Amino acid sequence: MPFMSDRRVDRLTSLLRRRGVVLPSFELYGGVSGLVDYGPVGARIRRKVMDSWIDHWTSHGDIVEVDSPAITPESVLVASGHVGEFNDLMVECGGCTGAFRVDHLIEDSHENKNSLSPEELVAILSTGIECPTCKESKWSDVRTMDLMFSTQIGAMKGGRKAYMRPETAQGMFMLYPALFRHFKQKLPFGAIQTGKGYRNEISPRQGMIRLREFNMAELEYFIDPEDPPCPSLNTWSDSIALVPDPDGEHSGECLITISEALSAGIVRHPTVAWFLARTMDFLINVGIDSTRIRFRQHASTEMAHYADDCWDCELHGEHGWVECVGIANRTCHDLLSHERHSGSKQLKAWRQFEEPRSEIRDVLVPNGASLGPAFKGRAGKVIEALQNLTEIPEKMPFELTLTDGSSVQITDEMATRRSEEVTLHGEWFTPHVIEPAFGIDRIIWHILDHSYTETEKEGEKYSIMRLSSNVSPYDVAVLPLFDKDGMGEIASDILSRVNSMPGLRGEMDSSKSIGRRYARVDEIGVPWAITVDHETLKDGSVTVRRRDDQKQIRVMVDDVLLNLGTGTVSTLF
RNA sequence: GCGGACAUGGUCUAGUGGUUAUGACAGUAGGUUCCCAACCUGCUAACCCGGGUUCAACUCCCGGUGUCCGCACCA
Question: Within 7 A of a protein CB, which nucleotides of strand B?
């Protein structure tokens, strides 16, 4: 083994580099912080994590996968609120050169800081706000911190301003009308999308934890807020660590089953509860240590104004507790905002009443014979305004305001008052959306962190990556004990049989001693090794070695391959 | 973004203003051994980038980039 740093995290990162799992990007040119590469081994792991994530959600039946561009026109991100929020105003202190967010500095001096313009913020700043570090108040000019990567669609002057998406979610909101049709116009349904997201972090640190370009996997689940899906939670009998809202009545960490948490009112929304449970399942399935998972509820104060129950799933590792999944009830905020900004009428869903409802409505029926001659070209607008009246005036004549802002006088003969009975079979409403958003790189880091095991073997340090077979880079290693007497050929043959099985990938290694080869595959987390030896030549049996306890058994080749295909090799032991 | 430390083969490191720049591990070729990183021999492979000082810079100075540690930031 090479030199061992005294920090576990250093030894782990060094292994990940050495074995081609995760490495800094563009190192040839000095590297770029916040960007990483997945090497040949890491890319396999990432692919498997992504695939099991997609499989986990699409197997449910009412969730489908979509894919939309990373390049996003500015108007979309204005509507979503990203263009405003991602441009935090920053200011530097002339005394100690510290950088601060203006809104944080003036927090105590103004109640409604969110409503202030940049000019007003600067004005308040110059009233003698002190630097929290050095107590001076010599502030530099205010500048914006753009946390999105901006670009342009079209190379020439007329190019349209755009950004690299900071989340994949907006693409799914754009596809809402298509999804609504796909699901035969019935809620609930969901869409997932995996892909890259981009944030120009001020100071990315901690390796894979804060990246500038990162792998996301997001799910938008559209529901009727008056009829939220309440899947049964009885299948989840294990307790989950919850850290409820510190300002709420349930503050303090607790270990509790998900259905208890829902009935106790800790988790406020039944669909959110279901997503917490399903998220737990996914994480355990890809090999996260269940004792190092917890769900932390956002305090009412830190929650975005539109959301009403948000949970972060945090994983514990070398960097402490890190937020890896955010499960938010975004309510109708996004769809409504896109409806307002785009003017589209397709962002709603239909709610059928159980019983048709009749209503008596007073209406003014326009009289075209009288309106036409009176208003000529504007008559159309007048009729439209009359039909859109929500309150029918008591008396005639009255002033009617048109959509262009002008008003006209409506007299008796221009419209007839009438009571109409209308039967309503349902109504249009804006669906709510529950969004679980997964940071895949952070999850992969914790899979590696939790799997990395340092032991000793005959006084030597020995590392094993105890990856779940669901995410291991190779399913099996095929090792000829000697590369002679035809063992190499038999091994190649076994390998190609493995590789021809759907979804399976094996690796062959015939160099150096057998112990060294076991060590190499242990280090990258290959769960099984098949060794071809002299007996194989005689009877077709091989040694199967289990990574986690180094136990080995003798089995017929065909049996191992069969069990590899069904994921049941462990039953042979 | 600020301050401090650091930057040498794939990994971890030694070292110097001057001619072939250490060592270990890994890799590789051969020998030997054979079910847990054995051994022997050979080989491959590095001074972060740009400028300056100097007869001469991997070494000293400045700038950049990157990493780590604090501060700030993390929607």
Answer: 1-3, 10-13, 23-29, 33-38, 48-49, 64-69, 71-75
Which one-letter DSSP state was computed for residue A131?
P
- What is d(CA A425, CA A357) in angstroms, rounded to the nearest whole number? 6
Q: How far is the CA of A98 from the C1' of B2 (A)?
A: 6
A122 backbone φψ class: left, alpha, beta (φ>0; ψ -120 to 50):
alpha
Q: Which range of residues forms the domain containing residue A44?
A: 8-70+153-333+433-440
Residue A215, strand partner residues: A196
Q: Which of A62-76, A88-102, A448-462, A544-558 has the lowest mean pLDDT?
A: A88-102
Cβ-contact A241, A295 below 8 angstroms? yes
A99 with A42, same domain: the answer is no
d(CA A325, CA A369): 64
* Nearest residue to B13 via alpha carbon and C1': A3
In a domain, A516, yes or no: yes
Clarify whether residues A125 and A248 are in a common domain.
Answer: no
How many separate helices (H) and strands (E) can be counted in chain A? 18, 28
Q: Which residue has the higher pLDDT, A361 or A83?
A: A83
| d(CA A206, C1' B73) / Å | 14
What pLDDT digit, counting tens, does each position of A12-44 carry?
999 999 999 999 999 999 899 999 999 999 999
**Considering its fold, how many domains does chain A have in total?**
4
* Residue among A254, A264, A164 nearest A213 (CA): A164
Distance between CA atoms of A438 and A432, rounded to whole angstroms? 19
The answer to whether position A167 is within a domain reads yes
Tokens 């944080």, residue located: A104
ipTM attached to this prediction = 0.91
Half-sphere exposure in the Cβ direction for A253 (13 Å, CA)? 6
What CATH number is given to the structural domain containing A108?
3.30.40.230
Report CA A215 to chain centroid distance, whole Å.
9
Share of chain A above pLDDT 90, in %: 62
Closest-approach nucleotide to residue A198, Cα vs C1': B75
